[in-house]
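Model it.
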Amino acid sequence: MTQPSSSPRFGADRPSRPKPSERETRPPSPLWDRLKFILLFVLVWFAMVAIIWSQEEPWKTPAPEIFRLAAEGYGWLLLLALVEGLRQFHYLLQERSKGYYRAWTGLGDRYHRRVGRMSEWTRYRVGRALKWVFFLFLLSNALGLWFDVQPAWMGLVRLPAALVAGLPFILQLAFAFFFVIFQFVGLFWFLSRGGIDTIMPDEIETRFSDVKGQDGVLDRVKETMIFLDDPESIEEKGGYVPGGILLWGPPGTGKTLMAQAVAGETAKPFIAVDPGAFIQMFMGVGILKVKGLYRKLRRLALRYGGAIVFFDEADSLGNRGANVATGFERASGPWAQTGPCNGPAYLSNASRQAVFEFQAIGIANAIGAGSGAGTHPIMFGAGMGGGGMGTLQAILSEMSGLTKPRGFVNRLRKLLGMKPSPPPKYRILHIFATNMPDTLDPAMLRPGRIDRLYKVGYPHKDGRRATFEYYLAKVRHELTEDEIDRLATITPYFSGASIKDIVNEGLVIAIRDGREVVAYSDVIHAKQLKQHGLPEDHEYIERERHSVAVHEACHAVVTYRLRKHAVIDMATIERRGDVGGFVSWIPPEDRFVNWRTEHEQDLMSALASLAGERMFFDGDNTTGVAGDMRAATSMATLMEGYWAMGDTIASHSVTKGSLRNAQAIETGDDRNMWDGEFGKRIETRLRDLHDKTWDLLEENRTEVLAVAHALETRKTITGEDVAAVIEGTVGPTLDGRPYRDTGFRQMLEKYHVAVLRAHKEHSGVGATIPVPVPPPPVELAPAPPPPSGSVRPHVVEPHDPGEDLPREPS
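Modeled.
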């Protein structure tokens, strides 16, 4: 059926409603809207006429007299009807005359241009004063009519006397009113206090110069501050001042310090909101606190031309329940912590979602198979905001909600048909800091609320060196530039807070030793203490001490001989918890990806403990290799089935997941097909690398025994000392030249044979550990600076690239 031409048009043919600024006349008003108030006033007046007529004698009082009495007593109703008639006539002229409408609405624009020359704060205060004057004028006239005095303003003089006369009754009403609601008002008022600190300009000492190692982010924050101080520089060009900044990254990297520097540098008020400020017992208190916070911010923004509010630990604000920390968002979000190549980025949105759902179903089926049940849906986190129901929504609304003209004057202008004056520009900069950005609500992260997202990550080497210099300058020290540079090199992935703590711990060590000057050894000792923990006061039995030393020496020798992408940082046999010893290393370069050959070298370093124990103890080995074997198996699994570093190309996670998705539970065929064949490939790879490691250790047998002797006698040595022992040179803390002596090597071999016999017989060693012949006195060479790099240090034992594993006893 063809639609009649008189029907409204739809789709692209339908015209848009004109904007208010595009109208040439006022929109027509319905007839009822024109007449309703006039009819109301007239009907009420006639009701008053009827009441007066009923009170008088109708047969004696003529009708004109009744109307006259009504006009005298209730003429104000007719006056209101007349005023309403004039208002509707005024609207009618605006609907009919373009010139009249344009002239009348232009009055507001001309007025706003005139008063716009004043500052917004001055205009705000003048407007409030005029409102009070107008209110007092109306009140005085009303009181003058009430008390029947002339002039009308004398009514204000009579008002105190009238209030005193009615004071008993007023006090009774006030007491009843406050008795009922005071407890609620007082409770909510007190609960809505606290948690918000106002810092005025020049009340804090921290400056941008105190923030080290975050130059890139700091420059962007400074840029935002410039726009806040001079908004016209960007607004005149059609832009807008960014209203929100999110600083996210690991703990201790300087997010809060950067916000403190903003508070110290800016000439604007700085409002600091505590993380738990909006966590309240009663529903609605958080909303009241949000409203109070933004009232204060708007007032300060008008007074000082801008204000800054800082939300520390912003994740405490919570999330309204939209896919909190899902694997898909973690992999594709701005804070993805996945590998160096973001595979899903090459797929379309639909394909990414399909891949994510495919993997999610596989995980759910695996959970169902493991529990003996069917497929379970994945339930993501959901709940109210951290501050309670409605608190987060109130913050989002205040950040960039609907703004409209407010105030009595605007209501009066609207009543007269004039355009309301636009609301003032409240220049409020929001700064959020968190180390869990994936828990924030997506609505908070949209442009307009948070316009800039900056990762405050671990500082690079230059940043770490500047941080060390900054904190060392606060104490007396004797470190040279080369030693400070070496410290910056061997502390990759150390945050600013960690560096500050290391320097402070070094000072504590120096004071404990009765010194006032911090030495390089103090800082190194502090680093080892903070990074690896306090060693236990535990002494091995002699044969076990030797086996642990041989275990760690095998790790150290294989690492030194093979791993050019890893430099030994420290080797120790001091016990820490369930770890009997370890060899830690640092990469010499700032690397982005790893190669297959490097991972194979990592595997050989992990397998060195098993191969070495079996070689030196006639095929026997301890349980201390369990952590190394778990790490090696995890690495080999990833290489063989996930990283395309094995005999196949396909990703084992996809093929394994697709097979399990086709059935409710895991079958024996499934295990045989994948775990059997796949496990054999992993075992073959590990055995091949184990044999290569065995051959390498056989070639370096004397070096293993030499490093083991150094560990037994000193318990902890540096990477430079390991190199000195192997190469027969002078290290920073020990002389490795005696270990090149043939006679001393034979003594080490005899001692090992004695330990081996004691191990088999479970008896005492019966021999003393050999002591090297002191070489000619020579000044120990300073430690060579390690290669530059800023990659996270790693501990060879236990070595697990897939997950954090508990350390096995050595």
